[in-house]
Structure formats: structure tokens, C-alpha cells
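F.,

This is the one I mentioned.
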């Protein structure tokens, strides 16, 4: 079990949140996703590859710019 945090740009309402959630859940291994609309963030948990690229690509297809956020 590991986690990935993303900054997601362009979310403006609950329907954006749903789009982002669904795009993230379409990736294999995801068990949980929490989207923070006001903070513009997505927290993802599951049996994930270390690579955030599949998530970034899936969100791009939905029209949201995303990049990995590291809380160090
Ligand atoms: Cu929206």
C-alpha cells in the first residue's frame, strides 16, 4: 500500500471533483481517492506504481492539468 499526491489545476465545482475522482479510479490498483476542491489536490492510495504519470495522463484527458506533489 502506498500513496501519491497530486496538485490538480482547473477544478471549480463538485462535478469537476467527480470527473477527477473517476479518472483516478480508472487506474489499476487504486483503492481510495480523496479530492480537495479548494486546495486543488488529490490524495490517492492503493497498490500503486511509484510513477504518477498514468494519473497525470488520465487527468489531462479529462481537461485537468496535474502534477505530482511531494510533502517532504
Ligand atoms: Cu466543475
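My design for it:
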Amino acid at each position: 500500500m502506498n500513496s501519491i499526491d497530486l496538485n490538480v489545476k482547473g477544478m471549480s465545482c463538485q462535478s469537476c471533483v467527480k470527473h477527477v475522482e473517476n479518472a483516478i479510479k480508472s487506474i489499476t490498483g487504486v483503492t481510495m481517492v480523496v479530492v480537495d476542491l479548494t486546495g486543488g489536490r488529490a490524495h490517492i492510495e492503493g497498490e500503486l506504481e511509484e510513477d504518477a504519470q498514468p494519473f497525470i495522463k488520465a487527468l489531462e484527458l479529462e481537461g485537468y492539468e496535474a502534477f505530482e506533489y511531494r510533502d517532504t
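The two ends are 19 Å apart (CA to CA).

Talk soon.
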